[in-house]
TrEMBL record:
Its main location: cytoplasm. GO terms for biological process: DNA catabolic process. One of its GO terms (molecular function) is nucleic acid binding. Keywords: Coiled coil, Cytoplasm, Exonuclease, Hydrolase, Nuclease. Bidirectionally degrades single-stranded DNA into large acid-insoluble oligonucleotides, which are then degraded further into small acid-soluble oligonucleotides. It is an enzyme of class 3 (hydrolase). GO terms for cellular component: cytoplasm; exodeoxyribonuclease VII complex. It comes from Mailhella massiliensis. This is Exodeoxyribonuclease 7 large subunit. It catalyses: Exonucleolytic cleavage in either 5'- to 3'- or 3'- to 5'-direction to yield nucleoside 5'-phosphates. Heterooligomer composed of large and small subunits.
Length: 472
Protein backbone atom coordinates (compact mmCIF):
# COMPACT_ATOMS: atom_id res chain seq x y z
CA UNK A 1 0.00 0.00 0.00
CA UNK A 2 2.99 2.36 0.47
CA UNK A 3 3.48 2.45 -3.36
CA UNK A 4 0.03 4.04 -3.93
CA UNK A 5 0.29 7.79 -4.47
CA UNK A 6 -2.42 10.38 -4.01
CA UNK A 7 -3.44 12.71 -6.82
CA UNK A 8 -1.69 15.60 -5.07
CA UNK A 9 1.52 13.56 -4.69
CA UNK A 10 1.56 12.59 -8.35
CA UNK A 11 0.88 16.15 -9.45
CA UNK A 12 3.62 17.55 -7.19
CA UNK A 13 6.14 15.04 -8.44
CA UNK A 14 5.29 15.83 -12.07
CA UNK A 15 5.51 19.57 -11.35
CA UNK A 16 8.90 19.19 -9.71
CA UNK A 17 10.15 17.11 -12.63
CA UNK A 18 8.91 19.63 -15.23
CA UNK A 19 10.21 22.66 -13.36
CA UNK A 20 13.55 20.94 -12.71
CA UNK A 21 13.98 19.92 -16.35
CA UNK A 22 12.79 23.29 -17.81
CA UNK A 23 13.66 26.03 -15.31
CA UNK A 24 13.74 28.69 -18.04
CA UNK A 25 13.02 28.27 -21.75
CA UNK A 26 12.38 30.26 -24.91
CA UNK A 27 9.41 29.05 -27.00
CA UNK A 28 8.23 30.21 -30.41
CA UNK A 29 4.57 29.69 -31.55
CA UNK A 30 1.39 31.17 -32.97
CA UNK A 31 -0.96 32.87 -30.49
CA UNK A 32 -4.42 31.35 -30.21
CA UNK A 33 -7.24 31.24 -27.61
CA UNK A 34 -6.22 34.70 -26.39
CA UNK A 35 -8.18 35.95 -23.36
CA UNK A 36 -7.83 39.11 -21.24
CA UNK A 37 -10.11 38.88 -18.14
CA UNK A 38 -10.70 41.81 -15.79
CA UNK A 39 -7.97 40.58 -13.44
CA UNK A 40 -5.35 41.91 -15.85
CA UNK A 41 -3.72 38.50 -16.42
CA UNK A 42 -3.37 37.30 -20.02
CA UNK A 43 -4.19 33.70 -20.97
CA UNK A 44 -3.32 32.26 -24.37
CA UNK A 45 -1.89 29.21 -26.13
CA UNK A 46 1.12 28.86 -28.40
CA UNK A 47 0.28 26.71 -31.41
CA UNK A 48 2.41 24.78 -33.86
CA UNK A 49 0.53 22.43 -36.12
CA UNK A 50 -1.63 20.22 -33.91
CA UNK A 51 0.39 20.95 -30.75
CA UNK A 52 -0.64 23.49 -28.11
CA UNK A 53 1.17 24.97 -25.10
CA UNK A 54 -1.02 26.80 -22.59
CA UNK A 55 0.49 30.02 -21.28
CA UNK A 56 -0.31 32.60 -18.61
CA UNK A 57 1.26 36.06 -18.42
CA UNK A 58 0.52 37.45 -14.97
CA UNK A 59 -0.13 41.16 -14.60
CA UNK A 60 2.90 41.65 -12.34
CA UNK A 61 5.22 40.40 -15.10
CA UNK A 62 3.78 42.64 -17.81
CA UNK A 63 6.51 45.29 -17.90
CA UNK A 64 7.55 47.62 -20.69
CA UNK A 65 10.80 46.48 -22.29
CA UNK A 66 13.84 48.79 -22.34
CA UNK A 67 15.88 46.33 -24.48
CA UNK A 68 15.44 43.52 -26.99
CA UNK A 69 15.00 40.34 -24.93
CA UNK A 70 16.50 38.20 -27.74
CA UNK A 71 19.64 40.24 -28.53
CA UNK A 72 20.06 42.39 -25.42
CA UNK A 73 20.12 45.55 -27.59
CA UNK A 74 18.94 48.63 -25.73
CA UNK A 75 16.16 50.49 -27.53
CA UNK A 76 17.45 53.94 -28.46
CA UNK A 77 13.95 55.45 -28.80
CA UNK A 78 12.89 54.46 -25.31
CA UNK A 79 11.06 51.51 -23.76
CA UNK A 80 8.64 49.49 -25.88
CA UNK A 81 5.08 48.73 -24.63
CA UNK A 82 4.65 45.25 -23.19
CA UNK A 83 3.56 42.73 -25.83
CA UNK A 84 0.81 41.45 -23.47
CA UNK A 85 -1.27 44.52 -24.29
CA UNK A 86 -0.98 44.34 -28.08
CA UNK A 87 -0.60 40.73 -29.20
CA UNK A 88 -3.49 39.09 -31.03
CA UNK A 89 -4.63 35.70 -32.25
CA UNK A 90 -2.67 34.46 -35.25
CA UNK A 91 0.48 36.36 -34.34
CA UNK A 92 3.76 34.47 -34.04
CA UNK A 93 5.67 35.44 -30.90
CA UNK A 94 8.69 34.27 -28.89
CA UNK A 95 8.13 33.87 -25.13
CA UNK A 96 10.56 33.31 -22.28
CA UNK A 97 9.53 31.77 -18.98
CA UNK A 98 9.34 28.60 -16.94
CA UNK A 99 7.24 25.47 -17.32
CA UNK A 100 5.07 24.30 -14.45
CA UNK A 101 2.02 22.14 -13.72
CA UNK A 102 -1.32 23.72 -12.82
CA UNK A 103 -2.60 21.27 -10.24
CA UNK A 104 -6.24 22.38 -10.30
CA UNK A 105 -6.53 21.11 -13.88
CA UNK A 106 -3.68 18.66 -14.06
CA UNK A 107 -2.19 20.55 -17.03
CA UNK A 108 1.29 21.79 -17.67
CA UNK A 109 1.69 25.39 -18.72
CA UNK A 110 4.21 28.13 -19.24
CA UNK A 111 4.56 31.10 -16.89
CA UNK A 112 5.64 33.91 -19.23
CA UNK A 113 8.18 36.53 -18.14
CA UNK A 114 9.11 38.11 -21.48
CA UNK A 115 7.65 38.15 -24.97
CA UNK A 116 8.44 39.56 -28.38
CA UNK A 117 6.43 39.60 -31.60
CA UNK A 118 7.90 37.71 -34.55
CA UNK A 119 5.17 38.32 -37.14
CA UNK A 120 1.78 36.86 -38.14
CA UNK A 121 1.32 33.12 -38.24
CA UNK A 122 0.60 31.17 -41.39
CA UNK A 123 -3.07 30.68 -40.49
CA UNK A 124 -3.59 34.37 -39.92
CA UNK A 125 -1.81 35.20 -43.16
CA UNK A 126 -3.98 32.72 -45.02
CA UNK A 127 -7.09 34.21 -43.41
CA UNK A 128 -6.20 37.78 -44.42
CA UNK A 129 -5.26 36.76 -47.97
CA UNK A 130 -8.57 34.93 -48.50
CA UNK A 131 -10.49 37.80 -46.93
CA UNK A 132 -8.93 40.33 -49.31
CA UNK A 133 -9.51 38.12 -52.37
CA UNK A 134 -13.18 37.41 -51.61
CA UNK A 135 -13.80 41.06 -50.77
CA UNK A 136 -12.37 42.06 -54.14
CA UNK A 137 -14.79 39.63 -55.83
CA UNK A 138 -17.75 41.29 -54.07
CA UNK A 139 -18.74 38.44 -51.72
CA UNK A 140 -18.84 40.85 -48.77
CA UNK A 141 -20.74 43.69 -50.50
CA UNK A 142 -23.61 45.00 -48.40
CA UNK A 143 -25.67 45.86 -51.49
CA UNK A 144 -26.15 42.20 -52.45
CA UNK A 145 -27.07 41.02 -48.92
CA UNK A 146 -30.73 40.23 -48.26
CA UNK A 147 -32.69 41.22 -45.14
CA UNK A 148 -33.32 38.53 -42.57
CA UNK A 149 -37.11 37.89 -42.26
CA UNK A 150 -38.72 38.91 -38.98
CA UNK A 151 -40.75 36.30 -37.11
CA UNK A 152 -40.06 33.49 -39.63
CA UNK A 153 -42.31 30.42 -39.43
CA UNK A 154 -39.84 27.98 -41.08
CA UNK A 155 -36.17 27.99 -40.02
CA UNK A 156 -33.46 25.55 -41.12
CA UNK A 157 -30.51 25.23 -38.72
CA UNK A 158 -27.19 23.84 -39.95
CA UNK A 159 -24.99 22.80 -37.01
CA UNK A 160 -23.72 19.91 -34.95
CA UNK A 161 -26.80 18.14 -33.50
CA UNK A 162 -25.40 17.52 -30.02
CA UNK A 163 -23.58 20.79 -29.41
CA UNK A 164 -24.33 23.58 -26.97
CA UNK A 165 -25.05 25.92 -29.88
CA UNK A 166 -28.24 24.14 -30.98
CA UNK A 167 -29.38 23.74 -27.37
CA UNK A 168 -29.00 27.48 -26.75
CA UNK A 169 -30.70 28.31 -30.06
CA UNK A 170 -33.75 26.12 -29.30
CA UNK A 171 -33.93 27.33 -25.69
CA UNK A 172 -34.00 30.98 -26.74
CA UNK A 173 -36.43 30.40 -29.63
CA UNK A 174 -38.88 28.57 -27.32
CA UNK A 175 -39.35 31.74 -25.25
CA UNK A 176 -39.68 34.22 -28.13
CA UNK A 177 -41.89 34.84 -31.14
CA UNK A 178 -45.27 33.28 -31.92
CA UNK A 179 -44.09 29.79 -32.75
CA UNK A 180 -42.07 28.41 -35.65
CA UNK A 181 -41.06 25.11 -37.22
CA UNK A 182 -37.32 24.44 -36.85
CA UNK A 183 -35.52 21.75 -38.85
CA UNK A 184 -31.92 20.72 -38.17
CA UNK A 185 -29.43 19.59 -40.79
CA UNK A 186 -26.68 17.87 -38.77
CA UNK A 187 -23.10 18.51 -39.94
CA UNK A 188 -19.65 18.39 -38.33
CA UNK A 189 -18.50 21.90 -37.45
CA UNK A 190 -14.74 21.37 -37.12
CA UNK A 191 -12.07 19.23 -38.75
CA UNK A 192 -11.28 18.47 -42.36
CA UNK A 193 -14.64 16.82 -43.05
CA UNK A 194 -16.64 19.89 -41.88
CA UNK A 195 -16.34 22.20 -44.96
CA UNK A 196 -17.67 19.76 -47.60
CA UNK A 197 -20.53 18.70 -45.29
CA UNK A 198 -21.52 22.32 -44.64
CA UNK A 199 -21.40 23.06 -48.39
CA UNK A 200 -23.62 20.04 -49.10
CA UNK A 201 -26.12 21.13 -46.43
CA UNK A 202 -26.35 24.65 -47.86
CA UNK A 203 -26.92 23.31 -51.38
CA UNK A 204 -29.62 20.96 -50.08
CA UNK A 205 -31.36 23.83 -48.28
CA UNK A 206 -31.37 25.87 -51.48
CA UNK A 207 -32.80 23.04 -53.58
CA UNK A 208 -35.60 22.21 -51.13
CA UNK A 209 -36.50 25.92 -50.72
CA UNK A 210 -38.54 25.05 -47.62
CA UNK A 211 -37.05 27.49 -45.16
CA UNK A 212 -37.51 31.24 -44.95
CA UNK A 213 -34.02 31.60 -43.46
CA UNK A 214 -30.98 29.37 -42.90
CA UNK A 215 -29.17 29.67 -39.55
CA UNK A 216 -25.53 28.47 -39.69
CA UNK A 217 -24.37 28.28 -36.06
CA UNK A 218 -21.52 26.95 -33.96
CA UNK A 219 -20.38 27.52 -30.39
CA UNK A 220 -17.10 29.10 -29.34
CA UNK A 221 -13.68 27.51 -29.65
CA UNK A 222 -10.08 28.09 -30.60
CA UNK A 223 -9.00 29.47 -33.95
CA UNK A 224 -8.31 25.99 -35.27
CA UNK A 225 -11.71 24.78 -33.99
CA UNK A 226 -13.46 27.53 -35.99
CA UNK A 227 -11.22 27.21 -39.05
CA UNK A 228 -13.84 25.28 -41.05
CA UNK A 229 -15.83 28.53 -41.32
CA UNK A 230 -12.80 30.25 -42.89
CA UNK A 231 -12.85 27.76 -45.74
CA UNK A 232 -13.34 29.26 -49.20
CA UNK A 233 -15.78 26.51 -50.21
CA UNK A 234 -18.08 27.34 -47.29
CA UNK A 235 -17.92 31.07 -48.07
CA UNK A 236 -18.89 30.53 -51.71
CA UNK A 237 -21.70 28.13 -50.75
CA UNK A 238 -23.12 30.79 -48.41
CA UNK A 239 -22.84 33.35 -51.21
CA UNK A 240 -24.69 31.06 -53.69
CA UNK A 241 -27.48 30.03 -51.30
CA UNK A 242 -30.84 31.39 -52.61
CA UNK A 243 -32.19 31.62 -49.06
CA UNK A 244 -31.00 34.35 -46.64
CA UNK A 245 -28.25 33.01 -44.38
CA UNK A 246 -27.85 34.10 -40.74
CA UNK A 247 -24.43 33.17 -39.29
CA UNK A 248 -23.94 32.78 -35.53
CA UNK A 249 -20.41 31.39 -35.11
CA UNK A 250 -18.33 31.44 -31.93
CA UNK A 251 -18.33 34.28 -29.42
CA UNK A 252 -18.48 38.05 -29.82
CA UNK A 253 -14.72 38.33 -30.46
CA UNK A 254 -14.67 35.62 -33.13
CA UNK A 255 -14.91 36.67 -36.78
CA UNK A 256 -14.80 34.22 -39.67
CA UNK A 257 -14.97 34.46 -43.45
CA UNK A 258 -18.48 32.99 -43.21
CA UNK A 259 -19.54 35.92 -40.97
CA UNK A 260 -18.44 38.38 -43.66
CA UNK A 261 -20.19 36.43 -46.46
CA UNK A 262 -23.50 35.71 -44.71
CA UNK A 263 -26.48 38.03 -45.19
CA UNK A 264 -26.30 38.85 -41.47
CA UNK A 265 -23.86 37.90 -38.71
CA UNK A 266 -24.93 37.33 -35.10
CA UNK A 267 -22.51 37.56 -32.18
CA UNK A 268 -23.41 34.09 -30.83
CA UNK A 269 -25.88 31.27 -31.60
CA UNK A 270 -28.16 32.65 -28.87
CA UNK A 271 -27.98 36.09 -30.44
CA UNK A 272 -29.02 34.53 -33.78
CA UNK A 273 -32.25 33.30 -32.19
CA UNK A 274 -32.84 36.72 -30.64
CA UNK A 275 -32.49 38.37 -34.05
CA UNK A 276 -35.09 36.07 -35.62
CA UNK A 277 -37.85 36.38 -33.00
CA UNK A 278 -38.94 39.19 -30.72
CA UNK A 279 -39.68 38.77 -27.04
CA UNK A 280 -43.29 37.86 -26.45
CA UNK A 281 -43.96 40.79 -24.12
CA UNK A 282 -43.47 43.05 -27.19
CA UNK A 283 -46.49 41.40 -28.82
CA UNK A 284 -48.46 41.75 -25.58
CA UNK A 285 -47.64 45.47 -25.47
CA UNK A 286 -48.67 45.80 -29.12
CA UNK A 287 -52.02 44.11 -28.39
CA UNK A 288 -52.54 46.44 -25.41
CA UNK A 289 -51.83 49.43 -27.64
CA UNK A 290 -54.32 48.21 -30.23
CA UNK A 291 -56.93 47.64 -27.52
CA UNK A 292 -56.42 51.16 -26.18
CA UNK A 293 -56.68 52.64 -29.67
CA UNK A 294 -59.86 50.63 -30.31
CA UNK A 295 -61.44 51.84 -27.07
CA UNK A 296 -60.57 55.44 -27.90
CA UNK A 297 -61.99 55.09 -31.43
CA UNK A 298 -65.14 53.48 -29.99
CA UNK A 299 -65.56 56.33 -27.49
CA UNK A 300 -65.11 58.93 -30.22
CA UNK A 301 -67.65 57.13 -32.42
CA UNK A 302 -70.20 56.88 -29.59
CA UNK A 303 -69.72 60.59 -28.79
CA UNK A 304 -70.25 61.58 -32.42
CA UNK A 305 -73.38 59.42 -32.73
CA UNK A 306 -74.76 60.84 -29.46
CA UNK A 307 -74.23 64.36 -30.77
CA UNK A 308 -75.96 63.50 -34.04
CA UNK A 309 -78.86 61.92 -32.09
CA UNK A 310 -79.22 65.05 -29.95
CA UNK A 311 -79.35 67.26 -33.07
CA UNK A 312 -81.89 64.95 -34.70
CA UNK A 313 -84.04 64.95 -31.54
CA UNK A 314 -84.07 68.74 -31.43
CA UNK A 315 -84.98 68.95 -35.12
CA UNK A 316 -87.76 66.38 -34.62
CA UNK A 317 -89.23 68.35 -31.72
CA UNK A 318 -89.29 71.51 -33.85
CA UNK A 319 -91.15 69.68 -36.64
CA UNK A 320 -93.69 67.84 -34.45
CA UNK A 321 -97.43 68.88 -34.54
CA UNK A 322 -97.41 69.43 -30.80
CA UNK A 323 -94.56 71.93 -31.10
CA UNK A 324 -96.36 73.71 -33.97
CA UNK A 325 -99.55 74.00 -31.85
CA UNK A 326 -97.54 75.40 -28.95
CA UNK A 327 -95.94 78.05 -31.16
CA UNK A 328 -99.31 78.99 -32.68
CA UNK A 329 -100.86 79.28 -29.20
CA UNK A 330 -98.07 81.63 -28.19
CA UNK A 331 -98.65 83.67 -31.36
CA UNK A 332 -102.40 83.85 -30.64
CA UNK A 333 -101.76 85.01 -27.08
CA UNK A 334 -99.40 87.72 -28.33
CA UNK A 335 -101.98 88.96 -30.90
CA UNK A 336 -104.72 88.97 -28.26
CA UNK A 337 -102.57 90.97 -25.85
CA UNK A 338 -101.68 93.51 -28.54
CA UNK A 339 -105.35 93.91 -29.62
CA UNK A 340 -106.52 94.38 -26.03
CA UNK A 341 -103.84 96.98 -25.40
CA UNK A 342 -104.79 98.82 -28.61
CA UNK A 343 -108.53 98.91 -27.73
CA UNK A 344 -107.76 100.08 -24.21
CA UNK A 345 -105.53 102.85 -25.52
CA UNK A 346 -108.23 104.06 -27.95
CA UNK A 347 -110.92 104.01 -25.23
CA UNK A 348 -108.63 105.89 -22.87
CA UNK A 349 -108.00 108.61 -25.41
CA UNK A 350 -111.71 108.95 -26.26
CA UNK A 351 -112.69 109.03 -22.59
CA UNK A 352 -110.16 111.74 -21.91
CA UNK A 353 -111.52 113.74 -24.84
CA UNK A 354 -115.08 113.34 -23.56
CA UNK A 355 -114.06 114.42 -20.07
CA UNK A 356 -112.40 117.49 -21.50
CA UNK A 357 -115.48 118.39 -23.47
CA UNK A 358 -117.64 118.00 -20.40
CA UNK A 359 -115.47 120.37 -18.45
CA UNK A 360 -115.53 122.88 -21.23
CA UNK A 361 -119.35 122.68 -21.43
CA UNK A 362 -119.73 123.12 -17.70
CA UNK A 363 -117.57 126.22 -17.76
CA UNK A 364 -119.18 127.84 -20.83
CA UNK A 365 -122.74 127.83 -19.64
CA UNK A 366 -125.92 126.31 -20.78
CA UNK A 367 -125.44 127.19 -24.39
CA UNK A 368 -122.10 125.77 -24.48
CA UNK A 369 -123.41 122.79 -22.54
CA UNK A 370 -126.04 122.15 -25.17
CA UNK A 371 -123.49 122.61 -27.89
CA UNK A 372 -121.16 120.34 -26.06
CA UNK A 373 -123.86 117.72 -25.66
CA UNK A 374 -124.51 117.82 -29.33
CA UNK A 375 -120.80 117.56 -30.07
CA UNK A 376 -120.57 114.71 -27.61
CA UNK A 377 -123.43 112.95 -29.25
CA UNK A 378 -121.79 113.41 -32.63
CA UNK A 379 -118.51 112.18 -31.24
CA UNK A 380 -120.17 109.14 -29.73
CA UNK A 381 -121.87 108.48 -33.02
CA UNK A 382 -118.49 108.61 -34.75
CA UNK A 383 -116.91 106.47 -32.04
CA UNK A 384 -119.58 103.78 -32.08
CA UNK A 385 -118.62 102.44 -35.55
CA UNK A 386 -114.96 102.36 -34.52
CA UNK A 387 -115.80 100.38 -31.39
CA UNK A 388 -117.91 97.99 -33.38
CA UNK A 389 -115.13 97.68 -35.99
CA UNK A 390 -112.48 96.94 -33.37
CA UNK A 391 -114.69 94.51 -31.53
CA UNK A 392 -115.65 92.78 -34.76
CA UNK A 393 -111.97 92.54 -35.85
CA UNK A 394 -111.03 91.03 -32.52
CA UNK A 395 -113.91 88.54 -32.69
CA UNK A 396 -113.00 87.62 -36.29
CA UNK A 397 -109.33 87.11 -35.36
CA UNK A 398 -110.28 84.95 -32.43
CA UNK A 399 -112.69 82.95 -34.58
CA UNK A 400 -110.01 82.49 -37.25
CA UNK A 401 -107.49 81.25 -34.71
CA UNK A 402 -110.07 78.91 -33.16
CA UNK A 403 -110.82 77.48 -36.61
CA UNK A 404 -107.10 76.96 -37.25
CA UNK A 405 -106.68 75.24 -33.88
CA UNK A 406 -109.68 73.01 -34.58
CA UNK A 407 -108.24 72.13 -38.01
CA UNK A 408 -104.98 71.09 -36.40
CA UNK A 409 -106.65 69.02 -33.67
CA UNK A 410 -106.10 65.33 -34.59
CA UNK A 411 -109.29 64.36 -32.66
CA UNK A 412 -111.57 66.82 -34.45
CA UNK A 413 -112.39 64.33 -37.28
CA UNK A 414 -113.33 61.78 -34.62
CA UNK A 415 -115.80 64.21 -33.07
CA UNK A 416 -117.35 64.68 -36.50
CA UNK A 417 -118.08 60.96 -36.68
CA UNK A 418 -114.97 59.56 -38.26
CA UNK A 419 -112.93 56.66 -36.84
CA UNK A 420 -109.28 55.56 -37.04
CA UNK A 421 -108.35 51.87 -37.45
CA UNK A 422 -105.05 50.56 -35.95
CA UNK A 423 -103.40 47.17 -36.32
CA UNK A 424 -102.21 44.89 -33.52
CA UNK A 425 -99.05 47.00 -33.03
CA UNK A 426 -100.96 50.25 -32.71
CA UNK A 427 -99.96 51.56 -36.16
CA UNK A 428 -102.63 53.46 -38.12
CA UNK A 429 -103.91 51.45 -41.10
CA UNK A 430 -104.27 53.32 -44.37
CA UNK A 431 -104.97 50.34 -46.59
CA UNK A 432 -106.80 47.03 -46.36
CA UNK A 433 -103.52 45.38 -47.30
CA UNK A 434 -102.22 46.10 -43.79
CA UNK A 435 -104.51 43.50 -42.17
CA UNK A 436 -106.01 40.09 -42.79
CA UNK A 437 -108.75 37.91 -41.32
CA UNK A 438 -107.91 36.69 -37.84
CA UNK A 439 -105.75 39.67 -36.88
CA UNK A 440 -106.60 42.04 -34.06
CA UNK A 441 -107.91 45.54 -34.77
CA UNK A 442 -108.47 48.66 -32.67
CA UNK A 443 -110.96 51.36 -33.75
CA UNK A 444 -110.42 54.81 -32.21
CA UNK A 445 -113.54 56.99 -31.68
CA UNK A 446 -113.97 60.38 -30.14
CA UNK A 447 -115.01 58.97 -26.76
CA UNK A 448 -112.91 55.77 -26.64
CA UNK A 449 -111.83 52.76 -28.65
CA UNK A 450 -113.28 49.43 -29.83
CA UNK A 451 -111.23 46.24 -29.76
CA UNK A 452 -112.02 43.48 -32.21
CA UNK A 453 -110.80 40.82 -34.64
CA UNK A 454 -110.89 41.01 -38.44
CA UNK A 455 -113.15 38.31 -39.88
CA UNK A 456 -112.89 39.45 -43.47
CA UNK A 457 -111.54 42.16 -45.77
CA UNK A 458 -113.35 43.81 -48.67
CA UNK A 459 -111.32 45.82 -51.17
CA UNK A 460 -112.81 48.35 -53.53
CA UNK A 461 -112.37 48.14 -57.26
CA UNK A 462 -109.78 50.95 -57.15
CA UNK A 463 -107.59 48.67 -55.05
CA UNK A 464 -107.82 45.91 -57.63
CA UNK A 465 -109.15 43.22 -55.25
CA UNK A 466 -112.33 41.20 -54.60
CA UNK A 467 -114.23 40.84 -51.37
CA UNK A 468 -112.69 38.24 -49.08
CA UNK A 469 -115.32 38.31 -46.38
CA UNK A 470 -117.51 40.79 -44.59
CA UNK A 471 -115.80 42.60 -41.73
CA UNK A 472 -117.64 42.45 -38.43
Amino acid sequence: MSAILSVRQVTEQVRQAVEGRFPYVWVRGEVTNLSRPSSGHVYFSLKEGDYLLNCVWFRGQQRDEAFDPLTGEVWEDGPRPCLARSMENGQTIVCAGRLTVYGARGQYQMIVDLGQAEGLGLWHQEFEALKRRLAAEGLFDQERKRPIPQEPRRVLVITAPGGAAIRDFIRISSTRGLGAEIRILPVPVQGEEAPPCIVEALEKAGKEAWAEVVALIRGGGSVQDLWAFNDERVARAVYRCPIPVLAGIGHEIDHSITDFTADFSAATPSHAAQLLWQERHVFAQHVDGLETALQQAFSRRIGMLALRLDHASRALRLLSPQERLRRQEESLQNVTRRMGAAVKAVLTRKTALADGLALRIAGAGEARLQRAERETERAEEKLAPLRRTLTLAEEQALSHLELRLQALDPFEPLRRGYAVACDEKGSIMRSTAQTAPGRGITVLLADGRILGTVTGVERTAAEGGNSDNAAR
